């Protein structure tokens, strides 16, 4: 009912790939792979094929995403003494970090520099004026087709990073984009699922082969401000800087929620909600809007939610400290009990889920009760319904 075909089908493909990797024993740490760029058996082998590629040999600066399955690609770049740029997680502090191994680093230290911890310990932020000239981009994918269409994990960060690199002049139209996946992640993707801001790929490396996609579809030409919400702008400080620069250069930088014409349309269809709240529209069909990552997913301007008696709130407690909100959301998707609002209080090891339908709330309690997530058994119950939602 009213679900944009694209959002649903992209999620169907993601769920299928995640489920298959887990069920077939191909999934590797960190698990479950749901909600992530999945790590898989043979990822290191697939990354090693990078060394044989001309586009890699010629590259001086290589940008590699921070995902676990791309660790081998980061190591290859460091071992070949290339400049390695890694986007900062969730783009909170800038766009890239440059990984700088200590002088005379041993193999062992280079290996550590390629891990997510090493990316934190050995990195130097690169500002917008750091004059990055990226010669090769390596991204993770959940699914990809031989034609070069790519589906990420649904938050839109890779697309946004690429658009920001275009905007700051760090990539050109012919800068090659490589993705590294398991063979089972290469599948047919209908072209109508692609949005014009979606990043396409030129090469696909798997443990068994290298595919050149010869993708003719143009890559994003920069940031599409009409697809950026003010919420995203608030979360990604560097976007503000880029926006004021582009505004000074005379570009139209009207945001998605500043467009009077778009204000009343179903936002789930204006697809950069990837980083926005799950169902800011209470009337959206369950699962129709991609799930984002904000800590409190709600729409403060929605009078129908605030103080409404029809909302049933479910308390989820005993969340392990290491649990990410995306992992809880994967479980909610799996059990088909997606709330209209998720209030994540990870530091207090708990979350509150708001449902408009009491039946779904009851089903959430019975499905999640005692579920083991990250080694803890969840404690789930209907919250005291008159909880102050302020």
From TrEMBL:
A GO cellular component annotation in the UniProt record: cytoplasm
Positions of the UniProt region annotated as Disordered: 279-307
Keywords: RNA-binding
SUPFAM superfamilies: NagB/RpiA/CoA transferase-like, RNA-binding domain, RBD
Pfam family, one: RRM_1
Source organism, top-level taxon: Eukaryota
GO molecular function: RNA binding
InterPro entries, per database record: FTHF_cligase (IPR002698), FTHF_cligase-like_sf (IPR024185), MTHFSD_RRM (IPR034359), NagB/RpiA_transferase-like (IPR037171), Nucleotide-bd_a/b_plait_sf (IPR012677), RBD_domain_sf (IPR035979), RRM_dom (IPR000504)
Domain RRM: 312-385
Protein name: Methenyltetrahydrofolate synthase domain-containing protein
